[in-house]
Write a structure and sequence with these properties.
Elements lengths: L1 H21 L5 H25 L3 E4 L4 H4 L5 E5 L6 H6 L5 E5 L10 H6 L3 E2 L3 H13 L3 E3 L20 H9 L3 E8 L18 E7 L11 H17 L11
Parallel strand pairs: 1-7, 2-5, 2-6, 3-4, 3-5
Antiparallel strand pairs: 6-7
Helix pairs in contact: 1-2, 6-7, 7-8
Length: 246
């Protein structure tokens, strides 16, 4: 675990220094592609490290097909932990992330995120417009429809925000729900970064079938349909099904 924190500390600062500088000199589109590729490989090899050290055993096979889709899609996982995005971006070569605005000022993540053209979730109207525009230019938008990590008191998932459906309708893009399961609540909402879990952590990340807006379906109706899909799938019997929080 200490090695993983050192990995993040050193590479995070280097990426912020290098990519933060490049964001001022590289052409916009080239900079975005370069920044997203950098994040992809940093996360990919971090997952390799986690597996090699037996800190984590992860079944990510269900994400392989998403990385091969060339048309614009929305990748929408439930948000169990602070590091969920790491495992998904490790399988998506050109992921466009919607993230907290404060992360763009983070010394370990800010420079690379700005260069990559990641989208802050500040003003809802602007976020929806920027995300839809990014999708229409081509790409894979990574968006957590809960808007934040699943609250410890929730059985399966938080009530979904409407942004995912609004972006899908505006961009005309399908939503691929992604179902994350784990035997640990490591880095859930309220978990201190310094507090170690019981290792190894077991993860299963599976992509569902694409969800497309039905004729005449409103954003609120699409959001309710997505909520039902997540709850039905996450409630299904599974070795890593979410356990009730003590």
């Amino acid at each position: 675990m200490a090695g993983g924190l050192v990995y993040w500390g050193i590479l995070g600062l280097l990426v912020t220094l290098i990519c933060g500088t490049l964001s001022f000199v590289m052409p916009h589109r080239s900079g975005e592609r370069f920044g997203r590729t950098v994040h992809h490989y940093i996360f990919k090899y971090f997952v390799v490290y986690l597996r090699a050290t037996r800190l984590v055993t992860a079944d990510l096979g269900g994400l392989e097909r998403l990385g091969k889709i060339s048309t614009p899609i929305i990748v929408a996982p439930n948000h169990t932990s602070l590091w969920d995005a790491v495992f998904i971006i490790a399988r998506l070569p050109q992921a466009i992330c919607v993230m907290k605005k404060s992360i763009l000022r983070n010394p370990f993540l800010g420079g690379g995120s700005r260069l990559s053209g990641y989208i802050p979730n500040g003003t809802t109207t602007r976020m929806i417009r920027d995300a839809a525009d990014a999708l229409q230019r081509g790409g894979q938008l990574l968006l957590f429809p809960e808007g934040t990590r699943t609250h410890p008191s929730e059985r399966w998932i938080n009530p979904l925000k409407g942004g995912c459906a609004l972006i899908a309708i505006r961009a005309g893009a399908p939503i691929y729900p992604v179902f994350i399961r784990s035997n640990s609540r490591f880095l859930q909402k309220g978990w201190p970064l310094w507090k170690p879990p019981v290792f190894p952590i077991h993860l299963s990340i599976v992509a569902g079938e694409p969800i497309v807006r039905r004729d005449g379906e409103s954003a609120s109706d699409l959001t309710r349909r997505l909520q039902e899909i997540y709850e039905q799938e996450l409630a299904r019997l599974h070795p890593l099904r979410r356990q009730t929080s003590a």
